[in-house]
Amino acid sequence: xxxxxxxxCLWQRLLTVRRRRPKRRxxxxxxxxxxxxxxxxxWWWNNQAERRYNGIIRDAATEFGVEYALIKAVIWQESRFxxxxxxxxxxxxxxQLMELAAFEWADEHGVRxxxxxHVYDPRTNILAGTYYLKxxxxxxxxxxxxxxxxxxDYNAGRAHVLRxxxxxxxTNSALFxxxxxxxxxxxxxxxxxxxxxxxx
Length: 200
Prior knowledge:
Layout: H1 7-51, H2 54-64, H3 68-79, H4 99-108, H5 122-138, H6 146-156, H7 158-164, H8 173-179, H9 183-199
Helix pairs in contact: 2-5, 3-9, 4-5, 5-6, 6-7, 6-9
């Protein structure tokens, strides 16, 4: 008889177990809602950051005749729309402009008392960066697709482009991409191209 548990004790245990389960479910739902809310906020914030400079990008696209979606894709790849971004080699701002590239734009447009730090300003950065991108595109008029050459120039520099653009690869962009021995530059070109298609 000592081993038999009274019915009242069994009911109390069952009720206790049943009461505990809903609390755990409630916590799971609460955690799920928090995660969904955080993801929605992150998505919203990224969209806001991407849209913040649309007007300036459109102005630059019109002024220099460079595709809006391409400019935006380069900004996304270079800085993820962080106007205060600084690269390891001293690149500055949204389009990660080197000092030489910034001064090339300033000299061409007669900007006096220009300093490299002026490209922290989003408008100056996007205008100078788009001008620089346009000059890279104009360098390869004989290529079947000048974009890979221009983006490689923007990312790795002219000397590397000339090394990769030997013989038939001077005009054949597929061969040019095959000759590229910098996986990072190849990845850069592919990511910018995919992002450009996304913004179209």
